[in-house]
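Tutorial handout. Part one gives the primary structure; part two gives the three-dimensional structure as tokens.
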Amino acid sequence: MDLNADLGESFGSWTMGDDASMFRIVSSANVACGFHAGDPLTMLDSCRAAFELDVRVGAHVGYRDLAGFGRRSLDMTFDELFGDVLYQLGALDGMAHAVGASVDYVKPHGALYNRIVRDAEQAEAVVAAVHAYDPGLPVLGLPGSAWLRLAEESGHPVFREAFVDRAYLPDGTLVPRTQEGAVLHDPDAVVAQAVRLATRKEVLAIDGTVVPVLADSLCIHGDTPGAVNMAAAVREGLEQAGVQIEAFA
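Part two.
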């Protein structure tokens, strides 16, 4: 099972999370590409750390929304979104190439991630940009999303992810961050959800419904309080349950 986290989200003198520690725990890193978070130096440092620790680099593409951290949905034309995603891919891949690394997959961020679960038009624009950049580049996303369906139809290797520290709705989507209880903070609950997802291929929704979830990768956020300790506990819990941590890309 792959274990991924959103990293490289610092900007200038503002620091987000403890990336140095998180890189030592995860097997894949979704690196911000400068639009929702990140800057050239942060991107470069993230790619270097990933290369040195044998962590796979994913392009964490998002809306051009630094002020809102990419968590505000934007209405964009096909060409606008196509261009923005293509720009971010090229920027991160250039940084990765400079330090001997490479962009191994693509995972949308925040509001864009959630929107292209159902918005086929925006999903098509993101897929088109990824395909134009590299027709064989793997993609990561929510099971059953329009994003994964269209990417697979375009010939991209598709990988599904689940979230160990987010609450789920009965339909298998995430509880919106605007709703209380959307993010799980209890380490024991997070570890239990991770192990259940990895071993039983299911998650317990907020209403008690058991939801089947087939995942190739588990995501844990690096920007929540106590993220490093929680991530370490998740990895330890998975390994104790007999789950081998290995990058999908």
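Part three, for discussion. The CA atoms of residues 205 and 248 lie 26 Å apart. The two ends are 11 Å apart (CA to CA).
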